[in-house]
Amino acid sequence: MKKILLVETKLLARDWLGVALSLALPVGLLLVLGQIPDLQKPDPNLGGQRFVDAQLPAQMILLALLTTAFTILPGAMATYREQGVLRRMSTTPTHPARLLGAQLLLNLIIALCSAVVVIVAGWLVFGSQLPGQLFGFLLAYLLGAAAMLALGLVIAAIAPNSKTAPGIGSVAMFPLLFVAGMWIPREIMPDTLRTISDFSVVGPFVNAMRDTWAGDWPQLPHLAVMVGGLALFSGLAVRLFKWE
C-alpha cells in the first residue's frame, strides 16, 4: 500500500494544475469576496456574525472539497479504467481496491490542506474566527468529505471516459453549491429551497461547519444526513463502479 501511495503521489504531482486549482481557487475567492464591505459587517440573518467569520470560509471549504472530489478523483479513476490499469491490476496480487484507497486518501489530504489554508487565510486577512469546537469540526468535515468522495466515485462510475468525468463533476458541483448557500444564505432561502438544502448533504455540511465555528457541537440531524449520504453514495459507487 505504501508503494502504491508513493507512486500515486508522484503521478498526482505531475498533474499539478488540478491540485493547484483545488488549493488556490477557494483561497482566491475568499480573499476577493472578503473585500466586499457588506460582508465584513455584522449580519442579523447570521446571528450577528459577519459573513467572513464563518459562512464564507465554510463555503470555500466546501468548494475545495467538491473540486477535489468531483474533478480530480473521477478524472483519475476514469483514466485508469480507460487505459486498462485497473483490469491489469486485478490479475496481480495487488488488487485495484488498494489503488482506489490510495486515491481516496490522497484526495482527502488535498482537500484537508485546502481547508486549513482557507481557515488560516481568513483568520490572518479578515480576522475571521477559528473553529471553536475542533473535534466537532473534524468529525463533521470527515463525514462530509467521505460522502462527497463517495459521490465522486459515482461520477467516475457513470462517466463514459476520462475526458467527460471532470465535466460531469463540474456540472454537478454548481447546483450543490447553490443549495449549500453559496449565493443565497440559507437563512433567506424560500422554505422549499431550504428543505432541499437540509437533505442535500452539502447544506448540513456547511451548517455543521458554522456550528463548530461558534464553538458548538454539530447538530445530530446534520450529522445524520451526512451519514445517510455516505451510505447512499457508497452503495451506489459499489454497485455501479466497473474495474474495466
Automatic annotation (TrEMBL):
It is a multi-pass membrane protein. Residues 17-244 form the ABC transmembrane type-2 domain. Its main location: membrane. It is found in: Cell membrane; Membrane. The keyword RNA-binding does not apply. The chain crosses the membrane at residues 12-36, 56-78, 99-126, 138-158, 165-184, 220-241. The keyword Transmembrane helix applies. It holds the Pfam family ABC2_membrane. InterPro entries: ABC-2_transporter, ABC2_TM, ABC2_TM_bact-type, ABC_2_transport. Belongs to the ABC-2 integral membrane protein family. This is Transport permease protein. It comes from Nonomuraea ferruginea.
